[in-house]
Each structure stands twice: as structure tokens, then as C-alpha cells.
Design brief:
Number of domains: 1
Radius of gyration: 23 Å
Helix content: over 70%
Distance between the termini: 46 Å
Oligomer: single chain
CATH topology: Formate dehydrogenase/DMSO reductase fold
Length: 287
């Protein structure tokens, strides 16, 4: 009898320890995910400004000197973004990809004006692609795709959504340069058409990814508002694609200014980037 009492007492004493251990684990994971969300917010700002630098610098190198001041303004914003990232340097600063992006930008910000048009675009594209990979790495390492069973598919936010934005960002950069130069050659024409098709494909994949998340049991509260807002951007994206086929290829001369073209393309990007922010805000209460 005494043995049974001692065994029960021992078991009961273990229960609080198990509960406390699980509580500490949940708290640790929640803190990890909060740090991950914060890093994604900072990296998204960096991505936005480097994408802008790409488009404006391409317009400048193609002959629109009026864009020089805007390039400088955006470069200053990028520097502030790096300063903000200092606050999480203990987690990210030693990341090989992070350091590669930082050193690449540090060279590009001063040397872009001496590059050829094609090399400037190539350097920016490579830099941004590595930044997108870093964003995915951060999301994965901070377990943001495993928050709850009903948030499965949330990786659409930092994958398909940002890839769609990058497709539009590439055509914005290329188109701004074409407008600044006053026309395009056959290679640029092929590139424009390729990017137009890529935007259409990525947009469909974005909608499909969100719908698939719903079908697999993701929270309607999380996904439905995002899906509705994505669909609402389709009109402006189609308008940009149509403009690319008419204005950029016009034999009568391009009528739009490079700055206006950049702004028009930006109006397609901004709602999608706002959705990225909104998506992260919707995830925060679920951590």
C-alpha cells in the first residue's frame, strides 16, 4: 500500500514538471515566431526599396537624368533598412546569404552608375533573388509555416505573393529603361513579352495557392480576405500588361514618361506588398 502511495505521489509530482516544460517550449516557440515576423517585416522593406532602386537606376542609365535624385533618395532608404536590421543582427548577421546580400549591395550602390544597362539589371536581379531566398529561409527557420493546423499554406505569403511582386518589379525596371531610352530593340521586346507571360502565370499561381490553402483547411479568416484583395488587383495588372504591349512597342513613339511608367507599375506592386503586411498582422494573434 505504501509503495502505491509513493508511486502515485511521484507521478503527481512529475505532472507539473511536464506541464512547465511544455509551457516553456510553447513560450520559446512563440518568441521565435514573433522574431521571425519582425525580421520578415524588416526584410520586406529592404526588398521594396532595392526593387525601386533597380527600376529607377535602369531609367537613369537609359538616359533619364531626372531620375538621379530619386535613385539617391531610395539608396538612403536602403541604408536605413540595413540600420534597422542591426537590431536582429545576432540572429541574422552571421547568415551567409545575409552577408552576401549586404556586401553585394554595398558594392552596387556606388558602382551601378559605371555599369552597362544590362549588367545593372543583372546585378539587381541576382541581389533581389538572394533576398527572396533569405526571406524564405527566415520564415522556415522561425517555423512560421507550422503555427497551427489551420494556417497551413501561409507560406504563399512569402513565396508566391513575393514572387508575383518580383515579376512585376522586373517589368517595371525594364519598362522604365525602355521608356527612358525612347524605344526597345528586339531582345528587349522578347524580354517584355516573357515577363508579361510570367506575371500572368505567377498571378494565377498566387490565386491557386491561396485557394489550395482554403481547400486544405486553412483558416478562412486568414485566407479569404487575402484572396479577395488579390483578385481585386487583377484589373490594374492587366492594364499594365496591355500598356507594355502597346506603349513600349509603339512605332509612333512612346508618349508616357519614364517616371509615369514607373509610378503606374508601382501601383500594381503596392497593393500586393500591403497584403504581405496584412498577412503577417493576421498571423501575429495566432502565434
Amino acid at each position: 500500500m505504501t509503495f502505491i502511495i509513493l508511486a502515485v505521489a511521484a507521478a503527481l509530482s512529475v505532472i507539473p514538471l511536464i506541464y512547465f516544460a511544455r509551457f516553456k517550449t510553447r513560450r520559446r516557440v512563440s518568441a521565435l515566431r514573433r522574431r521571425g515576423i519582425y525580421k520578415l517585416e524588416l526584410l520586406k522593406k529592404l526588398l521594396t526599396h532595392i526593387q525601386q532602386h533597380r527600376g529607377l537606376s535602369n531609367g537613369e542609365l537609359n538616359g533619364d537624368s531626372k531620375l538621379n535624385s530619386r535613385v539617391s533618395e531610395v539608396a538612403k532608404k536602403v541604408e536605413k533598412d540595413w540600420e534597422c536590421l542591426e537590431s536582429v543582427k545576432s540572429d541574422v548577421i552571421n547568415h551567409d546569404r545575409y552577408m552576401g546580400i549586404y556586401t553585394h549591395w554595398d558594392r552596387l550602390k556606388t558602382r551601378y552608375s559605371g555599369l552597362s544597362v544590362s549588367n545593372n539589371l543583372e546585378q539587381h536581379n541576382r541581389l533581389i533573388m538572394n533576398l527572396l531566398y533569405l526571406i524564405e529561409d527566415v520564415a522556415e527557420s522561425h517555423e512560421l509555416d507550422l503555427i497551427r493546423p489551420d494556417t497551413r499554406g501561409s507560406e504563399v505569403i512569402w513565396k508566391e505573393l513575393l514572387e508575383t511582386v518580383e515579376s512585376i518589379g522586373q517589368i517595371r525596371a525594364l519598362g522604365t529603361g525602355i521608356v527612358a531610352a525612347g524605344g526597345c530593340d528586339s531582345i528587349q521586346r522578347i524580354r517584355v513579352r516573357f515577363l508579361n507571360e510570367k506575371i500572368k502565370r505567377m498571378f494565377k499561381e498566387l490565386i491557386s495557392g491561396l485557394q489550395c490553402s482554403l481547400d486544405n483547411g486553412s483558416s478562412r479568416e486568414l485566407i479569404v480576405p487575402l484572396l479577395d484583395q488579390v483578385v481585386q488587383t487583377e484589373g490594374s495588372i492587366n492594364e499594365l500588361i496591355s500598356l507594355n504591349e502597346t506603349e513600349l512597342f509603339s512605332k509612333q513613339g512612346i508618349m508616357i514618361s519614364s517616371e509615369d511608367y514607373f509610378s503606374l507599375a508601382s501601383r500594381c506592386i503596392e497593393p500586393l506588398m500591403a497584403l504581405f503586411d496584412e498577412s503577417l498582422n493576421r498571423l501575429k494573434p495566432m502565434l
